[in-house]
Fold these 3 entries.
Entry 1:
Amino acid sequence: MRNGSGEPGRGRSHRRLRLGGAVVGAVALAAALIPAVASAAAGGSQAAVAHKVTRGTAEKLTRVGTVNLGALSRAAAARRAGTSAGTRIGPGHEVPQLLPSSVKRNVSTALRHSALMPRAPLRTTFNGNVPGEIGFNGITTGTNEQTMGFDITPPDQGLAAGTSSAGPAVLQFLNASLQVFRPSGTPLTVPVSASSFFRLGPCSATQFPLNCLSDPRVYWDPQTRHWFITSFTFASFVLGPTFPPSTQYVAVSRTSNALGSYTIFKIPMGPGFIDPADCPCVGDFDMIGADRSGFYLDVNEFGQTMFHGTDLFAVSKSLLISAARGGPVPPVFLYQVPTLADPFGGFRLAPSVVTQGSAAPNDEYFVEADANTFSDTSLQVWALLGTDSLNVASAPPLVESNVATEGYSTPPPATQKAGPIPFGNSLGFLAASPVDSGPGTMQQNTTFASGNLYVQMGTGVNAGGGAANAGLAWFVLRPRPGTSSVSVRNLGNGYVHVNGMLIYPSISVNARGHGYMGFAIGGASRFPGAAYIRFDGALGAVGPIHIAANGRTPLDDFSCYPAAPTCRYGDYSAGTFFNGRLFFGTEYVHTLTNVAAGAQSNWASRVWSVPSWG
């Protein structure tokens, strides 16, 4: 791809997608991904590079109003009281919608490295569930039918565990719907429309994407015991400047109760820091983090013809909570990391969150893979230093370093076991398509535990004979902040690999670095399922793979036919540690598409938790 200035690899793939009889403009994930590539694994030595110190600029954070999640649930339940469960809008009215996903690539570099893939030891052993595992089915594509009346794909996994008036709670948010469960899976609310939660008008198929949201994230903060929920709208980016501008939304609980009241804030996207004429812009792929003093949100800014870089927003956590309770609204500081001006670019800077029980620093770390190439042997670590300055409305400096690592690469599409695809058959297709594995970049936040960063990503791995599989890479990094710089040591890295496909990992650990890595699993002999592996902070991923839930049928989704050679899958999984248990959520498939009822997808989500160890 080339942008308007002729620079390779920093553009955006446009595609007109015909979905359900309607043509919808969308930002498409690159469809023709070159098979997995990577450089040979590097050692764990430090390769520190100090880059410019950047100060943020104060931007306006606007308070929208308040909502009560419990009250929304009761109102939604009352509306559905006279309607049988699972009632759908018929196929004649249903227009399924593909949510945006953008990716930055350098194809020419990928071609030069296409034969180089990291070799990883085969992990062919599988085992049953860890004793004490609890799992349940979460939000499904049918849930969106209840809250909105049409199918949306893919299901991005917003998930956190924390406190509520009913005891421990798991809050799940998948694009269009929110729901709260007990850790056992017992619902504490009915599904609630995300648009109503963020005080927007209805998100409808006929006016998509007006008032529709994407890329949800959920975080329960162990220091303050408050909930943070984010998402964004993108109407003007798709429909044009006469529609409401793309906006980032942040909901902050007014108490520690997941079922209680939240204050909604918004941050409008700016005019575009590379080329204002290239807007309307969108802040794609929200990622959130927190340290002792600050709350952080960063997004990928895409314009109409090119990728601009990363917008990173920082705000005082205590002042934001005070504003949620009615106090003054604090400034939010914007850091712009342009891809054209920085040798490493600014793309998917994965923020860190502090695991429960660990001391929280006044420094926030962001880990970035090199998205300018299809493969690399280093990671970039960004740091906001002395973030307690946010409490007095002063922007901390943003600095950068990089560290040598094992090789990683863009994974190939994940094959899935052949099986019935009634919706695909209705369109004339005979076999299930592979599912998208995502780019070789950060999909999930990193975890900070007792001074270390625990990092995960999908990667291509050598399956033997020159073939490529989708596997997982993990890294344990030790950052050391200075007054105007940060240095980073690589304490260890490795791969998880089977004769199959592993995608969308998320590491969750306790304060001692002990936990699990959760992920989705597939392959030619498996329907898409949910799995996990033990993670030891000193040794990495160890032992057999545990199957949290086997898939029961192929993914049969409208994104599979006929516009793309792969099906859109969940853009990321989720993991968190709370009160002695490690919680995970990912997409899987457990039922056939109900074509007779108008369904055009059959994705589901699996939520599970296991006891902590060590």
Note: The longest strand covers residues 467-481.
Entry 2:
Amino acid sequence: MPSNPKVLLLAMDAGDKILLRQWAADGTLPTIRSLLSGGLVGETMSLAGFYEGSTWPSFYTGVTPAHHGFHSLTQLKPGTYDFQRCYPGDFIKAEPFWDCLSKAGRRVAVLDVPLSGISTGLKGMQMVEWASHDGVYGFRTWPATLKWQVLARFGRHPVKSSCDSYRRTRRGFCGFKDHLLKGVQSKADLTIHYLKKGGWDFFAQVFSESHCIGHQCWHLHDPRHPGYDPETARHKGDPVRAVYQAIDSALGRIMEHVGQDTMIFFLATHRMAHAFGGNFLLAEILKQLDLAVQRPDTVTAQRSPGWIRKSYEGLRRCWRQLPENLKETLEPAVASLHSLMVHRLHGGDRLLLPSEIADIDLQNSKCFPLQNGTAVSGIRINLAGREPNGLINSGDEAEDFCEELCQNLLSIVDGDTGKPLVKSVRRTVDLYRGDCLDHLPDLLVEWNDDRILGSSAVGDFKGSRLRLASEKLGVLAGINTYVRTGDHRPEGLFAALGPGIRSGNLARTVSIMDFAPTFTELLGVKMPEIDGRPITEILAMVR
């Protein structure tokens, strides 16, 4: 190992490993091609059942969600039926690896690691959410004065609000892509500027633009998607490909400023593909099974304002028939009207709750959904002794309840194809142990991804209607209105190269938790009490 080793992490948030390999092979991504051909390449895996909100927290703490407690930006407060906004830096019950490095005297630069908070007193520098897919705090830095230096020199990232809020029109998607491309360029400039200052032992930069474009524009990338627009593809190209190319170019520019004594890690986390599954119908499934109870006030709200409901439905029909250029003009006003009407339709204050449980009477339901992403849904059992009005006793009763619910969910099929809609249902307690289990869902429902799910927010309703059936459930149908057309998968990819690291392929898959202890041990520091394990093959090469 070099006498004064340095580690540089360059990551693509939700970079899809299949596209990366394909486009590296055909020359579309020359920098990533050089990384994959010249480094030690391995497959990664995120946490079973928690490969959306928990991926990055588990990456930088080296522990499972059962030890750090985070799985969603909105979570149930244990022992209540109330929900809280979770700010990762304040909420997560484990220490980031860069804190360990700093305490051991190593100088660090940590830029835009998603779902992290500022580590006050860090030896070095940190930026949070200059550009990030999951905005929680807004742009913050350590030291605090760094924020104003960054803004004065580089300005703000061109994507200034949640990518979910961008216009759902052809021009809107193209503008979104252009903002991301400019953001990648600025992020490369920013990274190079601080990288050249030197004096660091560990340096990290994460490109979140791959995450944003994957969620919002998968239907403009994949010709199989129900919302695919061949005209936009013909005239504007593939936006996912364009953003990946921009990141590839940025990586190349950054690596020109890296010395030969530096170990480089390239990481693409929890990949992206088409949206899928019946998460948006889970609450209705539980109601149909007589396990969840609808709030009485929402029944009244749905029945009483008939003119609002009719106006809302009429507005949606008219909107779909408007020409594209007129949509561009009217969208800001229509968006405000839409929000107001939805708010009235759903009983006002309910929108403060997660949409999955907004019309469920939690204390009188045997179970209810929890936010856990859309690929793997979460279910909370209303357990006696844990919840204030628990209806299911622990022990045999809870075991029988879970077993029956699992079988009912696994029996659900796609009403159009007859194929199973649910891939697996697992109990969290069977997967994990830790002090924070009560912060997590009790059951994890993984949906089958065979069927590509369309969205009524993109184009027309094609492919957005899902019909499901089972003997116990009967037939249930609904329209997916969620704006995202791409969704996560748990697999990832990494490449490591530098002094002593031989090129080749790692013979095993590593956990996303294994990188934190690998980075610290490369710099002579051990992390205490972690679930991840150092990647020993790399450590053996450089020692």
Note: The first helix runs from residue 17 to 25.
Entry 3:
Amino acid sequence: MLEGCVPYPAAFRDRYVGEGYWRRETIAQAAEAAAAAWPQAPAIVDSRATLTYAGLIEESRRYAAVLVENGINAGDRIVIQIPNRSEFAILALACFRLGVVPVMALPALRRAELEYMVGLARARALAIAPEHRGFDHAGLARELALSCPSLKCVFSVSAAAGCIDLGASRARSSSAGAAGPDPFDVALFLLSGGTTGLPKLIPRTHADYLYNAREAAKVCALERGDRILLALPIEHNFPLACPGLVGALLCGATAVLAETTRAAELAATIEREKVTHLPCVPTLAINLLELSESERRQLRSLRVITAGGQRLQEPTARALKSAFPSLSVQQVFGMAEGLLCYTRLDDPDDVACTTQGRPMSPLDEIRIVDSEGNDVVDGQVGELWCRGPYTIRGYFSAADRNAEAFTADGFYRTGDLVRRAPSGNLVVEGRLKDLINRGGEKISAEEVESHLMSHPTVSAAAVVAMRDPTLGERACAYVTLRAGANLSLDEVRRFLESRGLARFKWPERLEVVDAMPLTNVGKIRKTDLRRDIEARLAAEQRAADAPASPHSAHGRP
């Protein structure tokens, strides 16, 4: 096991292998087996090209040669920040082939997060698209190359100053890495939700991640010849392997990659590519419901929508079933650390619309416990703990956090509050974590607060979730200021941009208060702030709903 990672205990590993849950193969070996079975089947489709299974493997071998030529070898780490393009899949497979460990970084991340990740992983390389959605990733990469001592080279999917152009390289397909790394060693790092500041690195092994993807494909009925549309950032666990890209490649399906989440554009893609499966967050599901009648007809090839990232509210689930009668609406609740719960495609509507599913694997072990760690009775709300053949035993190089997040017998304390419904499925009721869930993107309040506290006019800061009908939650920042100071939301955003914080983490509302509500021990009482923002939002809604003044139409006071 890679140094800094916590291995599965031998008894558990032997059981998972002995009972066939884990196989003695790497992700690259599994993909090559699929290519041998269906060489000319389409594997990857993006806005630029289509790659067959054979073509994908050939290109991944060429990328592997480029990595080796530039000194990147087994055990090295590479931060990958490529949007939903075929080059992501090619490079990821090249890494899996060599035993290079990719760190999956979202394209939305900026300097603050990337410097931290490169340093923590001791990454030797970074891979980017030079520009994405108007941001100069190549320029940021050049800055990182100067500020991060471990970083030796930057790879790019196209020409950019200071970068190694993967597309223009003349390297030939290589047999390097043909023997493959150890299937039970770390294949990749995912990012945690970042509930205690900056995200932790989640080590996933070849064996557990292959099982994760295969089993998810079964539960979602993703099969050979199907086409799954991946519009969510592909470095997320959900579109990567639940079942996502990896699951598609294992079963002979096609992964259609999209760089947009605009519902109208996705509808056109679904019709053009005859997409059968769509993993999405509830925000996107709501946007699909708002399509025109003609645009909705473009979705007729869809068989399964799997909604995750945050709880799909019952009215939205029922509206989807009503709007698209032939469509199976499936919920998934899970985490990059492992456990996945799905509603099944044959669950009754009342179960599918009101619960977030049950564990995917028969070897998933879950406990729902009270604040003392005692199991609660069915129907009672408690914290979810889990253990199983694809749930990690510890974060990378995070001994202190591991002591908090994992029990002595290996259960992961998720921080999610759930109850078990009479159907046996779980219902997500909230979380212990101080986290804002913005349309499926998890924002650590503590991380944003640490940046706000660096502003010269801010004396205290607290970030809380405020409800939003589209995204579920947005971030609201409460601040107290130093004497005589003023601060606007625009100034806050410019400040956070200058500090390199990802845009989606910026507060979308600012409340300047004279003093923070405090507990007896001097901690900010966030429950009071959450109640306050709820009251403010309710008052604003009442004002908006109030009948207009008879003079207002004429613009008179």
Note: Residues 435-545 form a domain with the GMP Synthetase; Chain A, domain 3 fold (CATH 3.30.300.30).
